[in-house]
Design brief:
Blueprint lengths: L2 H4 L6 E5 L15 H6 L1 H7 L3 E4 L27 H13 L3 E6 L9 H9 L11 E2 L22 E5 L5 E6 L14 H17 L3 E4 L38 H13 L6 E4 L6 H5 L9 E2 L2 H4 L5 H16 L6 E3 L8 H4 L21 H17 L3 E5 L20 H5 L43 H5 L5 H12 L8 E3 L6 E6 L3 E6 L12 E5 L13 E6 L1
Parallel strand pairs: 1-2, 1-11, 2-3, 3-7, 7-8, 8-9, 10-11
Antiparallel strand pairs: 4-6, 5-6, 12-13, 13-14, 14-16, 15-16
Protein name: Glycoside hydrolase family 13 protein
GO biological process, one term: oligosaccharide catabolic process
InterPro entries: GH, GH13_cat_dom, O16G_dom_2
Length: 545
Amino acid sequence: MTQASRDWWRDAIIYQVYIRSFADGNGDGEGDIAGLRDRLPYLRDLGVEALWINPWYPSPLNDGGYDVADFRDIDPRFGDLAQAKSLLDEAHGLGLKILLDIVPNHSSSDHAWFKEALAAGPGSPERARYIFRDGVGPDGSEPPNNWRSVFGGPAWERVTEPDGTPGQWYFHIFDVSQPDFDWENPEVRAEFLDILRFWFDLGVDGFRIDVAHGMVKNMAGPDLPYEDSGLLDRPSIADHPFFDRDGVHDIYRGWREVADSYDPPKLYVAEAWVEPAERLARYLRDDELHSAFNFEYLKSAWSAADLRRSIDSSITVLASVGAPATWVLENHDVERVVTRYGRETTGAGTGAARVATGPADLELGLHRARAAALLMLALPGGAYVYQGQELGLPEVLDLPVESLQDPVWERSGHTERGRDGCRVPLPWTVDGPSSGFGSGGSWLPQPAGWGALSVQASSADDGSMLTLYRTALRLRRSIPSVEPLSWVDAGADVVAFQRGTGFACVVNLGAAPVALPAHREVLLASGPLDADGHLPTDTAAWLAL
């Protein structure tokens, strides 16, 4: 194996599979491994190199599978370990790598360890695997401090002790059903090293690490100000007591030793909501993790200045530790880009800031999303495509309240609808039950006309978003991957750069058409050029120089 093939991840396109909403193979209304296996040829033909699969472990699904009850098994609604092994073998046979989600910060309250902790009582080794503390005030009836869950409400929950009396409190950054592990406990650290080996031995190529900036806590930390807190917000104070603490880096050095013990080495991708970029780079030193989601880029507004600043910052800072940048426009936690770019405020938000207000012009949003796709795919490094992004799916904003399942809805007191609108099952066909998602409906209702955006409809349309992605991913292979980015001055409202001497990308974010720089050929454009051959507003072009 060449070094280039061992470093495949440095410029790979990785497709995010939210398995519950991807494809339903058994007709129960929920996506599963069988449905994913059936669609592997679609993903190969799309042109991606790897798949990242959101949690498929046994779970009560109080938080979309991020409440894990068993880290070494498959939830029966999705399949079983034998099917998982078949999926891995078939994907590898098609040249596709498979990454899983790992959730090291917490477990489900249904996990055997947590049940043992509740039964064993205060001071027990079983309880020491989690973060239990005595309360304050009369009879310990108040939580240990004012820390809040990022899903809303207190980050502490009081338990009833085995003798039936009110007892200690346990800590949960997320939902009450997601108790946090105590990563000061050597048993917890050893357990996750074994979990990594279990899946690597099965054939998994790597992991995306959920809340990679969590895990280590200073439980003696102070009360926190919460004026601007929100879902997955980055730390807003210095020395945050439970986000981005230095101790996480020792954990990842141990994880890297496990990954490097395989041939070829396995891959880690960090979900780390930290800033500034220099803090993120610390996770990507050569003895820690390999790459990280670029949330600075994802949250950027649709403006030339904002995009240039984010691109420059990402490339420059990550290069200082030899890590590639990765580019992200969508995932399962943020509003879909077609809807977001159709709003007056185009930057992505989290938590309360995620609740966009005002109308969304979906035609405008789609036009911009097409240009954004070409910009993202032309940048040096890797990129992620969230399922349905390649179809131009909008956010579903009018899901009936009785169908909402995101814990944010309940914990916010029904003031924030949560993330279900970007998790609606995919349309595969124009007609039929659930637009081809499966024979038995879909766990979240699909909007009327969803089939018009389906893979079937898009494949027959030369001007569709799917056709654009397929063409761009094919042409992308000819862009010199080792060539850095050099900016081209094309005006304040234009993002333009070269990769080497033969390729350029130009994106017009201004109000008027702009002339393209000298070129031999327009390889691909997100929309038609005007009659003078100029690039219209909100349009991108790839040029052969």
